[in-house]
Amino acid sequence: MKFKAFLTDNGINLLEKRILPALDKMGRICHLYLTRDHAFFLHNLLAADGVQSVAQFKKESLFNDYRISSNNDDRIAFSVDLSLLHRALRSILAIYADSRDFNPNGLLIKLVKKLPPNSTQATPFLTFEAKGYKSAVVQDVPVSKPLSRADVQELQLAVESCEQLPATLVMAPDLNSLQNCVDGMKHVGDVMGVSVSKYGDLHLQISTSLITLGAEFRKLKVLGERADRVTEDEGLSVQSRVERGVQRGDAMSVQVSVKHYFKCLQCSLAKPDCVFVGIAPQGACLMVFFQFFVPGTRVTDKSFSLHCRLPVLDTGST
């Protein structure tokens, strides 16, 4: 199997300044999954628990002269330490920035096998290479042995399952406000109730034997299935409105780990333009989508995407 490409300036900036810092907060180890048309950074997709994250890129958003081949339908996947990957990229950029004339296509990245010091067996590395004035500079990042055909297929099926959207998504309020809210809640308890309604309400609540702490965001932008607000509910308490919405099928509620939710919101380091929250069918998981606009516009950038799936601890009424 072979992989070789050139990271473009846009790809370098996207990874080095936004995506890798955000993904590193999700966990140091992830799968890098490469296909003919896309590159994926995947967290926990083959695990039974924990926050799952999917960062998907069209090859053109990161690379020039993208070449991949394998006997598994030109698909390659392996595990990589994101902190090592980020460190190697930052390290070689100093040389690359000063020798652009020698690297017209971009920063070379390739999958290779090398013999480590004091070893008799070659192991795989993801290698960055930039040509300097006098010599080439190389940074090697150790990676796992490429996944087997069966494991790659399992990963592909997991990616496809993550593409199933909730029926209703609401646009979360200002990300800093949401982070501060969840940050305060994580000091109160471990389990948070999240409710999403078809009329644009997002309700967060955490309860213990001593205290109940909640936050409600109303009249948010809705994507997908919508419903009209019920006038008779307006005079009710928040909890009563949520319960009646769930009973009518206008809302869904689930319970998730506060720490999982806070970790997910660390993806703010990727500098998204807005965030949408929804609950998967049958309350299977809580999904958080980070939306990015084409710079200088309000048009969604479809060249890359990032979203998280939070496991449900105890499904509420659906």
Automatic annotation (TrEMBL):
<comment type="similarity">
    <text>Belongs to the HUS1 family.</text>
</comment>
<dbReference type="GO" id="GO:0031573">
    <property type="term" value="P:mitotic intra-S DNA damage checkpoint signaling"/>
</dbReference>
<dbReference type="InterPro" id="IPR007150">
    <property type="entry name" value="HUS1/Mec3"/>
</dbReference>
<dbReference type="GO" id="GO:0005730">
    <property type="term" value="C:nucleolus"/>
</dbReference>
<dbReference type="Pfam" id="PF04005">
    <property type="entry name" value="Hus1"/>
</dbReference>
<dbReference type="GO" id="GO:0044778">
    <property type="term" value="P:meiotic DNA integrity checkpoint signaling"/>
</dbReference>
<dbReference type="GO" id="GO:0000723">
    <property type="term" value="P:telomere maintenance"/>
</dbReference>
<keyword id="KW-0539">Nucleus</keyword>
<dbReference type="GO" id="GO:0030896">
    <property type="term" value="C:checkpoint clamp complex"/>
</dbReference>
<dbReference type="GO" id="GO:0035861">
    <property type="term" value="C:site of double-strand break"/>
</dbReference>
<dbReference type="GO" id="GO:0033314">
    <property type="term" value="P:mitotic DNA replication checkpoint signaling"/>
</dbReference>
<protein>
    <recommendedName>
        <fullName>Checkpoint protein</fullName>
    </recommendedName>
</protein>
<dbReference type="GO" id="GO:0000724">
    <property type="term" value="P:double-strand break repair via homologous recombination"/>
</dbReference>
<dbReference type="InterPro" id="IPR016580">
    <property type="entry name" value="HUS1"/>
</dbReference>
<dbReference type="GO" id="GO:0006289">
    <property type="term" value="P:nucleotide-excision repair"/>
</dbReference>
